[in-house]
Amino acid sequence: MSRTVIRGGTVITAADELLADVLIDGEQVVGLALPGSSLSGSFTADTVLDATGKYVIPGGVDAHTHMEMPFGGTFASDTFETGTRAAAWGGTTTIIDFPIQTVGGCLREGLDAWHAKAEGNCAIDYGFHMILSDVTDSSLKEMEALVGEGVTSFKLFMAYPGVFYSDDGRILRAMQKAGDVGGLIMIHTENGIAIDVLVEQALARGHTDPRYHGDVRHALLEAEATHRAIQLARVAGAPLYVVHLSATEALAEIAHARELGVNAFAETCPQYLFLSTDDLARPGFEGAKYVCSTPLRPVEHQAALWRGLRNDDLSVVSTDHCPFCFKGQKEMGIGDFSKIPNGLPGVETRMDLLHQAVVEGHIGRRRWIELACATPARMFGMYPRKGTIAPGSDADVVIYDPAARRTLSATTHHMAVDYSPYEGKETVGRAETVLSRGRVIVDRGEYLGSAGHGRFVPRGTCQYLR
Ligand code: URP
Ligand code: ZN
Ligand code: ZN
């Protein structure tokens, strides 16, 4: 077993910031010691990595990705191979992706299909949440078996009628089952039935441009669905995790529920913090690059989201990475915004955009790690194996240069998508060296990983329930 010591860096976890040397033996962290201490002197290793002047942080945990997702008449353009490699470049060492139950199909089929896509192809470790598209007696029964296999969370959709949509009765039944078997229900909270009426009306008026995607997916329809999901979860006595929250009004629903002591949690994504309806309204068909659901909101919503991230009404920042190329994929919606495949790339840029938030003073450094590493790991039952640097943790460690300056661009990113939503944006900070389970997979601009290094992570239950 090879041993690595990372010397001289500032170790930042959700709990601490301290100058420390980190000893890795094989795939695990085995010790931390003050530099110059006798303990540190005893850290002998085959490889010494110098982190002087750098941060030493846990690898990022991105709890919401869609590699190769079939959606909107096409497939998300990143495979597990390209998407996890891009994640590694950006300092993320664990993703949780979403197998899909097809309507009329069983959970097992969907899960097996995702295992087959991921196994042997991933650069970093991965887990799965299960998408429930067809809540039946038999799929409810299957939930318990999946929890036993480490697939402990289930996503349902109040949006996308005719595709993934579940009505309130089905959602309630899935929540009741999750409450019984220790699962966590994740919900896409938009009122899809009402949205479809507004889509039809907009198109009938000749409103076909991408910016109308933002208008029809009204903030109040996100808030209404969020409110309904919370009440259903309360009735079921089950915890709730709201995905990709973007609207101030929806956040108010979460905040109110949390004040009441409800086990309601929510994530937001970098696109809602750094992009807005101004991007959706870019001239020509450029706005299609910014079509995702929930949609980007007017810029005023961002202040509320930052506040939510500071006060923990928003507990996690995930990416909802679901890339579609502009050429040939987003273009499917020329002349009809409702045919633009929904989704944005982001798995590679999340850690840096959140560090940029530190630089700009929105959050502190420990909160950066909490939102991007520790809380997603705890929320989805992987902590302390993932999300921190402590004896016994997987050695998923990033040496992060907080002073590196860069310009985000499709010409330099590693995601398999032909545009960057952040083209030209200047950021400070960059993953310099990335270790996944003790192996260096990225080092100063060189990719050293391999497809198949990443393993499936069976997860435990949510570690936040009161
Ligand atoms: O636009 C999005 N979010 N696409 C991915 C599917 C989903 O709803 O998460
Ligand atoms: Zn969604
Ligand atoms: Zn998603």
Folded structure, characterized:
The strands form 4 sheets. Strands 1, 2, 3, 4, 5, 17, 18, 19 and 20 form a 9-stranded mixed β-sheet that branches. Strands 11-12-13-14-15-16 form a 6-stranded parallel β-sheet. 31% of the residues lie in helices and 22% in strands. The chain has a domain of 325 residues: Metal-dependent hydrolases (TIM Barrel), CATH 3.20.20. The relative contact order is 0.18. A hairpin with a 2-residue loop joins strand 18 and strand 19. The site of N-(aminocarbonyl)-beta-alanine has 9 residues, from loops.
Which features would summarize this protein structure in a list?
single chain, 466 residues, alpha/beta, TIM Barrel, six-stranded parallel sheet, binds N-(aminocarbonyl)-beta-alanine, binds zinc ion
Number of helices: 14
- How many beta-strand elements? 20
How does CATH name the architecture of the domain at 60-384? Alpha-Beta Barrel
Tell the overall outline.
globular
At CATH level 3, the topology of the domain at 60-384 is: TIM Barrel
Structural class: alpha/beta
Sheet having the most strands: 9 strands, mixed
Radius of gyration: 21 Å
Roughly how much helix do the residues carry, as a percent range? 25-40%
Catalogue the unreliable spans.
Answer: none
Give the N-terminus to C-terminus distance in angstroms: 40 Å
